[in-house]
Design a protein that fits this description.
Radius of gyration: 18 Å
Low-confidence stretches: none
Number of strands: 0
Number of helices: 4
Number of domains: 1
Strand content: under 5%
Distance between the termini: 36 Å
Length: 82
């Protein structure tokens, strides 16, 4: 954000964030987190178009939480990187 955003616009953005209540800031953070998760899932679906729902969940879990967590949750699923 620092390199491609006008300093006045950046300051206005932070001013707007400071004006939000803690609950609104939390909701905004949760929404952004969900959006990133959806984009990651879309990337997985694009890269592996024949993946079923379980494979998508396995790959998403590995991407977000790492291989060890994916192995604990799903066992030796073929989608988990070796």
């Amino acid at each position: 954000m620092d390199q491609d955003t006008d300093p006045r616009q950046r300051e206005r953005y932070f001013e707007l964030l400071r004006g939000l209540s803690p609950a609104e800031r939390f909701r905004k953070a949760a929404d952004l987190t969900q959006a990133v998760r959806w984009m990651a899932e879309a990337g997985i679906r694009q890269r592996f178009p024949h993946a079923d729902e379980t494979e998508v969940r396995v790959r998403l879990t590995e991407r977000i939480y790492g291989r060890q967590v994916a192995l604990r949750l799903f066992g030796a699923h073929p989608a988990i990187q070796s």
